[in-house]
UniProtKB/TrEMBL annotation:
The lineage of its organism: Bacteria, Candidatus Schekmaniibacteriota. It is found in: Cell membrane. GO terms for molecular function: ABC-type oligopeptide transporter activity; ATP binding; ATP hydrolysis activity. Keywords: ATP-binding, Cell membrane, Membrane, Nucleotide-binding, Transmembrane, Transmembrane helix, Transport. It comes from Candidatus Schekmanbacteria bacterium RBG_16_38_11. GO terms for cellular component: plasma membrane. SUPFAM superfamilies: ABC transporter transmembrane region, P-loop containing nucleoside triphosphate hydrolases. InterPro entries: AAA+_ATPase, ABC1_TM_dom, ABC1_TM_sf, ABC_transporter-like_ATP-bd, ABC_transporter-like_CS, P-loop_NTPase, Type_1_exporter. The chain crosses the membrane at residues 16-36, 56-77, 130-152, 158-181, 241-265. Gene3D superfamilies: ABC transporter type 1, transmembrane domain, P-loop containing nucleotide triphosphate hydrolases. Coiled coil: none annotated. Residues 338-573 form the ABC transporter domain. Pfam families: ABC_membrane, ABC_tran. This is ABC transporter ATP-binding protein. Residues 19-302 form the ABC transmembrane type-1 domain.
Amino acid sequence: MKEKHTIFSLGKASKSWIAFAIIAHLFIAATTVVFFDRIGYVVDALMTHVLTKKTFIETVNIMFLVFLSRLIFSWLANRSVYEISTKVKAGARDKIYSKILELELEYRDVKKTGSIATTTVEGVEQLESIFGLVIPQAFLSLLIPFGLYFYLRRLNSSIALTLLVLVIFIPISIMMVRAWIKKVTKAHWFSYENLHAFYLDSLQGITTLKTFGLVGKRMEEIGKRSENFRKRTMELLQTNLTSNLSMDIIAMCGTAVGIMLAIRYTQSGDLTIGAATIVVLLSYEFFRPLRLLGSYTHIAMQGIAASKSILEILNKDPSKHALSRMTSKAKLDGNFDIVFKNVEFSYREDRNPVLKSVNFELKTGQITALVGESGCGKTTVANLITRFYEPSAGEITIGGKPLHTIDPIEIRNNISMVSQRTYLFHGSIRENLLIAKPDATDDELYETCRKAGILDFVNSLPQKLDASLVEQAKNLSSGQIQRISIARALLKNAPILILDEPTSNVDAENEEKIQATLQEIARTKTTLVIAHRLRTVRDAHKIITLQKGKVAEVGTHKDLLDKKGVYANLIRTQNQFEPVIVN
Ligand SMILES: Nc1ncnc2c1ncn2[C@@H]1O[C@H](COP(=O)(O)OP(=O)(O)OP(=O)(O)O)[C@@H](O)[C@H]1O
Ligand SMILES: [Mg+2]
């Protein structure tokens, strides 16, 4: 059966460090007992006037050892918490990232990028308090009071038992307010997630907001959400404060009872002054671990609320398509002809299909162009070939093999693609190109830049290929971004080439260069060019026109013009605006 993720499975990798942290803290607690025990011993020695030089030196040595071991164990405890926190966070991020990859595009279709970012960045940060603080402390809260009980019993069993019984009131008070705190913390986390995602979205769209003069309105909304977040935060602080206060009262009253009992038993002669000193000093230690657990639980509530969002991603079942992607293992070889047979597809089952009974063939050595009105399904065809989505009916084959039997990674390894919404990473132009071929030489890089019509631009930069691109390549023009991504696709040199509107922002001169390159390299590849600007497809071996998700016409530029159908219509409309196309 498939593993179901729980909060605990997120911390599995740090199990041994958690045990280590517990052991280190137990040693620290033990040194406290040794220290107080020695104080009691010295007090009794002073009371009976038998503090010898030997006892004094022995005491100094013990104190020194206590301080030294506390130092070492505290360091070990801190180190363990650090290891737990890094291991848990790295593990959770890895799991979330692999899950998003496994679910592929379907996941991003349903969840906002901003909210995925909040979960993976902030939510994961919050996990450290659960595993680094709460879980070790929960064990300590159980072990330390019992340890103290067994130690104190030797001095006076009724005081030991009374303190142990009083300690139980702290977990009772935690349980009583738990549901209330949980509710408030949850509301606090969601208002945070909500504010964060909205803020991120507003930052990314700041130019658009400015153009529409909507910055003020957006700021107002951010203000509203911030105010809501402030209210939730105050509410959370209030609950935490109340709960901490009640725990403090229990701990203080318990300690007071311990002290009073110590005095009483000393008066009755059942306890020496030294032993009473130990009881006074140790009373609060009974309550300390649980008191700390209470505080840590408040901090971790945030993590628990955040872990809900993380578990929601991790436990999301992959669609049946994603599952089929995981199990198909066939490989591609020699033949890269692509065939669509009666392909039907819709992004959502309850919507009208985007593609309806689509049939066509892409042949190796030919350029096939796909044209049609905006929204008719061209990019969808590319998404299906790359197996980001699966057809709901019909079949797509590459080299005769059904796509659903081929590993998606294998498919994508064999495709060079320039997508319509291309993405360049933060880094240098060189780094962006090397994604396609990590071992490419400088000569190869410059040659591909030439073929993609970007060489002059690269050469004009002082740092050439090492010039850096800022996030989303905002320091380049749209045409430059397109040409770099064409260069990246050419460099990959895969047997299938898919170009989705590759030159929509490229000037005529550079477009000419790219066309020439395409004609040359397409001789050995299966090439699909999707284009709005019809002059880019004029020289294609075959043009397919899509209309409302159906293939309307197939033929060469000339055939289709003669047909005077959809294509001829498109040409006529475009000629009115861009009278470049000759017939
Ligand atoms: N991820 C998606 N989820 C749901 N619907 C989608 C998604 N992507 C596209 N669509 C819808 O599918 C239809 C076809 O979209 P597609 O992107 O294939 O059009 P296109 O022909 O490439 O258009 P354009 O020329 O504008 O790029 C459109 O109606 C669009 O709204
Ligand atoms: Mg498109």
